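Working notes for the structural subgroup meeting. M.R. asked for a predicted model of this chain before we commit to crystallization trials. I am recording the input and output together here so anyone reviewing the notebook later can reproduce the run.

Input as submitted:
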Amino acid sequence: MKVTMESVKNFAWNQMDAIWHDGSGQATVDMVKFEFNGYWVVNPWMDEKTEKSVNPYEYYGKRRTERFIEEVIEKIKELGDCDISRRE
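Returned structure, recorded in token form:
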């Protein structure tokens, strides 16, 4: 299964959306994430407070961003044919 960068970005947006709609505070438990400045980042195309778009390579660093992308690709492959299109 080939995973595109668009799929990775959609996956990240869907994770962020899930956090915004989670009432329990437990949404990040099984998500692909990393810690930055005391925040869990589940979408590196946004700053850690989800207030503005950023270039993840410049903002979080190449190594952290590439590790996140690799983990998302593996997660998508685990999920198989699940719909990961971005929810609007």
